[in-house]
Automatic annotation (TrEMBL):
Pathway participation: Cell wall biogenesis; peptidoglycan biosynthesis
Name of the protein in question: serine-type D-Ala-D-Ala carboxypeptidase
One BP annotation, GO: peptidoglycan biosynthetic process
Keyword entries, A-Z: Carboxypeptidase, Cell shape, Cell wall biogenesis/degradation, Hydrolase, Peptidoglycan synthesis, Protease, Signal
Amino acid sequence: MKAFSACLICAVLLFTALVPAAAASVQTAGTPAEKVQQVKSAIVIEEETGKVLYQMNADKELPPASMTKIMTLLLIFKALSRHQISLNEKVTVSEHAASMGGSQVFLEPGETMTVDEMLKAIAIASGNDASVAMAEYISGSEKAFVQKMNQEAKSLGLTHTTFQNPTGLPVRDHYTSAHDMAIMARELARYDQVFHYTSKYEDYLRQNTDKKFWLVNTNKLIKTYPGADGLKTGFTNEAQYCLTATAKRNGMRVIAVIMGAPSPKERNKEIAGLMDEAFANYTTKQILGKNIAVASAKVNKGDHGQVPIVTGNSAVLLLKKGESANGLQKKVDISRPLQAPIKAGTVVGYYTISKHNQVISKTPLIVKENIKRASWWQLFKRSAGSILVH
């Protein structure tokens, strides 16, 4: 009886020891939990596929500090890509923008700088004043720009994000998560031009004047981590030390987010370790490039009866080192019928790659150009031509 009781006690002790370990492992994926010990949340994703390589408390809602500017930069680059603004346009600084505290480039009320210079100030030096100046320039007011930030977050499917300003200065109900931050960073990374700014360790504003201002990148990994090319740091007393980092090696870009580290040294150490783990264990293989035609489709009542369907981005496989890319099944699925009018960039299907009957890659297929509704005369000629053929 004593032997049975002893065994029972041992079993209970063993069970209680294992349960916390099992609970902790649920929080992580791909890397042992002890890899990240001193931070509140973390995530690592591969940029092209968006696959999560590691996560810990990734949905925890936390203040992002100046990592907020990733969304600010995203809206700026969207406006540039749509030709709503251009890099050489002059932006006049308001009193409100110039009054921003925290990290700044000391813009003065009434001073003008180009969009290009403002981007340097935001991406390199984390200028709060430059962020607000650009917000006002794009949307007319900071408040209207913040509405756009939240609309964009919603369109990206971010459920743990709410913004109150474009800077990250402390304010109530301004929060995001490591997961949501990684998705924003991935969206921003689609604009390759952003890395022209975020990969610079230093630059200058007001060159050739007596007010020349030296910009030094707040992301020291740019100088110390091989392949690092972005993206944005953050710090407030509440948020502690945060970083969304990007690095590219052998064609694979990794995005890593750390939130709530106790020191910049710990933050950089943890994030470098996570990216090292990703590069050591994974590689990517491109199957198709971006804007490659894979099919054509009929468009009902379109000014073009037939349109090419192209890849919206590269079709890429994420593979573990040593994993074979043989035995792939590739398939083009297009929504039919297509109906005019259709805007350029509209997703009309997917290019899927499967292995062992499991989908391992899914690339959106788009219409590359605007398709207008056909005039009655075009439809008449098309109909008449069809009758003559028959």
